[in-house]
Amino acid sequence: MSTSTAAILGCAGTILSAEEAAFFRDVKPWGFILFKRNIDTPDQVRKLTSALRETIGRPDAPILIDQEGGRVARLGAPHWGKYPPGRAYGDLVANDPLVAREITRLGARLIAHDLTSLGINVDCVPVLDVPDPKGHEIIGDRAYGDTPEQVATLGRAAAEGLLAGGVLPIIKHIPGHGRAMADSHLELPVVKAKLAELEARDFAPFRVLSDMPMAMTAHVVYTAIDRRRPATTSKKAIKQVIRGSLGFDGLLMSDDLSMKALSGDFKQRAKDSLSAGCDVVLHCNGDMDEMKAVMAGVGKMSKEARRRAQAVMGRLVKVPEPLDVSEARARFDAAFDGRYAG
Question: What three-state secondary structure class fits 206?
Fold first, then answer.
């Protein structure tokens, strides 16, 4: 790990090209991320995850995926089961809060079973954003509920289910994307709420789950903290809020550097994110020219980043919690009256 560079990278397709394999061997990213373009069959995904790890010589290297459920799911039919968006778990609260928590954990435990069978050991879940009624729909039903308490409770349940199944969770989008009026994939959101309002609502779930191993930043400007820079590239936001008042000491990764919320070329985006305090940067789309530009702005992981990365990998359980998959899936489907069966 001491030779790893401070980056998580994607690849273009379902198999590694010779150019990609040579590039990854040369730059040695800390980890990788998969998207739908990388997914075909279970055997194919297993071969791809193995090939990715072979390029950097680390059999336990982090391989990430966004498998939330609902509209953010990279694995789907016919090989993998359906899962609901976060809001569907929150809607179970009306019946019994304890049941909602149990089913949220169970859903994440089942997802962990799907992922570990493919060699994937990190899921970009839970979403801890508290949606504002006036906010952009990019969060929407991905949120577990409308209150910080509900989001934190069910977010922790999801994180615990993943951890029990041998998968690392990532809390996102720290310190909170729910109030944003724009989609950061397309433009830079600016949140003008007062700090007290942010602390009480938006930031609260992240404080409750500050013990989690990894977090992903929000490409959002909070004018009460830093009027110029989004959290990803803001020293103030990272030092004072994420590391300070929220108390998060896990591995901090940027959201995708290719999102249009960020400005500057890819080298500069990477340098700005790392100099602000991110431990690693994320680049998702597998575009070779972009990845080369990103890596021009990335060096070896810092001493603190290596410490955090080592602690992160120490959270991976060697033997997952026992799971009767058929029984668990039947119980899960029954909780939603079969809406996500099949």
Answer: helix
219 counts as catalytic: no
Look up residue 289 and give its amino acid: D
Given a contact cutoff of 8 angstroms between Cβ atoms, the answer to whether 224 and 170 are in contact is no
> pTM score > 0.85 for this model?
yes
3-state secondary structure of 279: coil
Cis, peptide link before residue 213, omega less than 30° from 0: no
Distance CA 142, CA 139 (A): 5
Would residue 129 show up in a list of annotated catalytic residues for this protein?
no
Catalytic residue among 26, 60, 96, 185: 185
Question: Among residues 66, 226, 255, 272, which one is catalytic?
Answer: 255
Give pLDDT tens digits along the chain (342 positions): 568 999 999 999 999 999 999 999 999 999 999 999 999 999 999 999 999 999 999 999 999 999 999 999 999 999 999 999 999 999 996 667 788 999 999 999 999 999 999 999 999 999 999 999 887 788 999 999 999 999 999 999 999 999 999 999 999 999 999 998 777 787 889 999 999 999 999 999 999 999 999 999 999 999 999 999 999 999 999 999 999 999 999 999 999 999 987 989 999 999 999 999 999 999 999 999 999 999 999 999 999 999 999 999 999 998 999 999 999 999 999 999 999 986
The phi-psi region of residue 107 (left if phi > 0; otherwise alpha if psi is between -120 and 50; otherwise beta) is alpha
User: How far apart are alpha carbons 71 and 249 in whole angstroms?
Assistant: 30
Give the tokens for residue 324.
């009767």
Q: Are 177 and 154 in contact (CB under 8 A)?
A: no
Question: What angle separates helix 288-296 from helix 266-276, to the nearest 10 degrees?
Answer: 40
Dist. CA 87–CA 91, nearest whole Å? 6
Distances in Å between the Cα of 114 and the Cα atoms of 47, 67, 102, 159, 180 are: 15, 10, 19, 15, 32
Neighbours of 3 (CB within 10 A): 10
